[in-house]
UniProtKB/TrEMBL annotation:
UniProtKB keywords: DNA-binding, Repressor, Transcription, Transcription regulation
SMART domains: HTH_LACI
InterPro entries for the chain: HTH_LacI, LacI/GalR-like_sensor, Lambda_DNA-bd_dom_sf, Peripla_BP_I
Keyword Transmembrane helix among record annotations: no
Repressor in keyword set: yes
Species of the source: Pseudolysinimonas kribbensis
Signal peptide span: none
Ranges where the HTH lacI-type domain occurs: 1-57
Domain of life where this protein originates: Bacteria
The name this protein goes by in its record: Alanine racemase
Amino acid sequence: MTLADVARMAGVSSASASLILNRRAGTRISSETQERVRTAARELGYRPNIAAQSLRTDKSHTVAFVSDFVSTTRFAARMIRGAMKAADELGQVLIVVETEGDVEREARAMHTVLDRQVDGIILAAERARAVDIPDFPDSVNVIMLNAMNDAHPHAILPDELQGGRTAVRELTAAGHRDIGLVGYDFESGIGGSSPSVTLERRMHGIREQMAADRARFIAQGGSRRWEPEEGYRIARAQLRAGPVRAFLCLNDRLAFGAYQAIAEAGLTIPDDISVVSFDDDDISSYLRPGLTTVALPHEAMGRLAVERLYRGSPAEEVLVAMPSIRRGSVAPLSVGARRTG
């Protein structure tokens, strides 16, 4: 079945049928006519000739998503989900290629997607970091997703500065001013599970909000591995050193370890101690009580990457807000506890 067959059955011109079936924006065709054309296409089993469209428009309607470990990482995989949803809504095809950080596989992946004449490439990283960009034809748009490159300004990143401020406010709004920091030590500079281009922004936001709210860190513990055992070790040491009524953990896995240390000390969350974290990993909703955390907006970032490629948006750094996911791990500090400090 051809486009002309659909147009004839719907009683419209081939040009009108093309506008409707290709979802062209700004058409003044009535909704009734549009529905009539779509019904005719369904009844006739019409399928557009993508190859012919590509030759005519010089567009393949295909976007490549090339990443390191995104698809195999629990919450980072949401970037792919967001990109897939946006691609489907915009009538695009998304090709996902995972390189697992292997340089040779990455080179092969680039040749593969370029051979398919994709309209754009999303270069994504599981953890925010600087990445190397191979040479691309000028006709191919490239967007960094959760990644940066000094020579390539088009990047989509979480707004870590705002996220750091938000996390602190969750505690200070509940009256907490003396806070234990789990995962980073400002004095030694130790912290971070891997080199991150956004960690510095997160820590800057934390310090800014602490100063604005007249709060202080009564204890700090850094680790280069943000895993539960390190969270347990740091939180246990801080609890043994003196009373702590609030913990700010730099990711949910550290917070999971802190939960264990708190229970071992005979304390309860949030009655005795409040906990706030970052990421919104799946584990945060399974903890009891649920963990209040500042989410990495991975799905929104993936969606935005496809939309910006589709629209041909200007090359610039775009920061996506990190929302606070409030659960049950924060409670107001009692008046008596404030007096005793």
